[in-house]
Specification:
CATH topology of the largest domain: D-Maltodextrin-Binding Protein, domain 2
Largest sheet: 5 strands, mixed
Number of domains: 2
Number of helices: 9
Order of helices and strands: HEEEHEHEHEEEEHEHEHEEEHH
Distance between the termini: 136 Å
Strand order of the largest sheet: 4-1-5-14-6
């Protein structure tokens, strides 16, 4: 009986070995051949980013000016290059901020209209900061205080201040705060000019009785013709010049203001005032 049990167990053990040998072995995954592209699962696609303005440090900045405002912006007759207080200031700002400048010279009202439509990145042209202009453009921090003053021919004893302009022919340049102030005066015969140099030329020649202009601008023209022109009264408005900036270029405000602050601290703006504001 024991032998029969032993034989049965032995037979079952051998059968198990045979069945185990008959099971198929797992097939190994072949390694990819060298240079053969391995298929990857699809990756999510990132949404396209909107194109941003170029970094100011590498950008070419389009600058508009009206080079008929001595001592702030003029054309040097010898070199035919733009120069003046504003031009030198803007170049110094560009050097601090790493800008490349591309200048456009056009009439003042076109400067403001073009900047309002962002045809330019910024404008510097003895531009007074006003609430109305802030509706159409941005501004840097102020860089000079420039109120309005009356300029007359030397020897004219009938005009001693703005209060004596009633009944007189008074000139200013189109689009300027001088024009705004001239139009406010009652009973004035206001005569607009495309440029201040023509207005001051007519004043010196007796074609108009007075010109209303920004004080620093007036000083520049008086410095060119001190025998014929002079100011009367006091500066009668409190105004500041600023660099006007296209509303789409908010990225320019911080680097321009930082450069202005550095130039003030280094005395550069004071040096420009001494160089260009003739007669002060």
């Amino acid at each position: 009986m024991k032998r029969s049990v032993y034989l049965i167990l032995s037979a079952l053990f051998l059968a198990a070995l045979v069945l185990g040998a008959c099971q198929p072995s797992p097939t190994p995954t072949p390694a990819p051949q060298e240079g053969y592209p391995v298929e990857q699962p699809p990756q999510p696609t990132a949404p396209p980013q909107q194109e941003a303005y170029p970094a100011p440090s590498t950008a070419t900045i389009r600058v508009a000016t009206d080079a008929t405002f001595p001592p702030f912006e003029i054309v040097d007759e010898a070199t035919k290059e733009l120069t003046g207080f504003d031009v030198e200031l803007m170049k110094a700002i560009a050097e601090k901020a790493g800008f490349q400048l591309e200048w456009s010279n056009l009439p003042f009202d076109s400067v403001l209209a073009g900047l309002a439509q962002c045809q330019f990145d910024l404008a510097i042209a003895a531009i007074t900061i006003t609430d109305d202009r802030k509706q159409q453009m941005l501004f840097s921090d102020p860089y000079i205080n420039a109120g309005q003053i009356v300029v007359i021919r030397k020897g004219d004893e009938t005009i001693k201040s703005k209060d004596d302009l009633a009944g007189k022919t008074v000139a200013a340049q189109l689009g300027t705060t001088g024009e705004i102030e001239a139009r406010k005066i009652a009973n004035v015969n206001y005569k607009p000019y495309d440029t201040y140099d023509l207005a001051f030329l007519d004043l010196a020649n007796g074609q108009v009785d007075a010109v209303i202009a920004d004080y620093p601008t007036a000083l520049g023209f008086i410095g060119q013709n001190p025998e014929k022109l002079t100011t009367v009264g006091e500066v009668f408005t409190d105004e500041s010049y600023g660099i006007a900036i296209c509303k789409n270029r908010e990225d320019l405000i911080a680097p321009i203001n930082a450069a202005l602050a550095q130039l003030k601290n280094e005395g550069v703006i004071s040096e420009l005032e001494m160089k260009w504001l003739v007669g002060e």
